[in-house]
Amino acid sequence: MPFQKKLALAALSFAATFLLPILAFAQDDRAGSNSFDVKAWAAAGAGIAIGLGVLGGALGQGRAAAAALEGISRNPGAAARIQTPMILGLALIESLVLLAFVIAFFLQLFAKG
Questions:
Q1: Contact status, residue 13 vs residue 48, Cβ threshold 8 Å
Q2: Per residue in 23-37, pLDDT tens?
Q3: pTM (two decimals)
Q4: Partner of 108 at 20 to 30 A CA spacing, among 15, 34, 67, 82?
């Protein structure tokens, strides 16, 4: 992938992640916003949070497992020394996915209240 495409993808990701949520706070109370708007934005935020968390975790786990298997295939004698850090890394990646789930759960919980 050329550098310009990577840069454009990074800029689009930045805009979607950091600039679009600002629009949720752009409305003042006189514009006709109500509690349904807050609940809708919280539901959208929760869906995006868990979606990005799971996507990133799945990609990270796949790359970690692929790298470990490649290392084991190159040096089978080091399988025990590679397997333990790989499992620890996979557990830490999974903990980040669970953190995204908890954040999404709290977004839904606070939107109802």
A1: no
A2: 666 656 555 666 677
A3: 0.61
A4: 15
